[in-house]
Amino acid sequence: MSRPTASWPAIGAGLYRLTSVAPPPWVSAGTVAAARALLAALRADVERVTAGATRRDAPTRIDAGDGSWLRWTRRGGWLS
Question: Are the CB atoms for 16 and 78 separated by under 8 Å?
């Protein structure tokens, strides 16, 4: 499977994975807090831009594929 291109939604998914586990000891609490704040901001942006969109239209509004959108919005996904 190919890696997703560097995009804001893909960055959100990566931040979700990283902030869902304990960071390594060399990562400061401030960095973890900043990552979590960025994740929250990205979620808010996605929610704002996809509000009222259909399941088909929502991923196109953030330049994401249908498969990624479904993965991200299902239980355990970064937008769930």
Answer: yes
Q: Which of 61, 69, 25 is nearest to 45 (CA)?
A: 61
Helices 8-19, 66-73: axis angle to 10 degrees equals: 30
**Long-range own/partner contacts, residues 67-76 (CB < 8 A, 24 or more apart):** 68/4, 68/9, 68/10, 68/13, 72/9, 72/12, 72/13
- Tens digit of pLDDT for each residue in 12-22? 999 999 999 99
| pTM score of the predicted model | 0.86
In Å, how far from its chain's centre is CA 13?
4
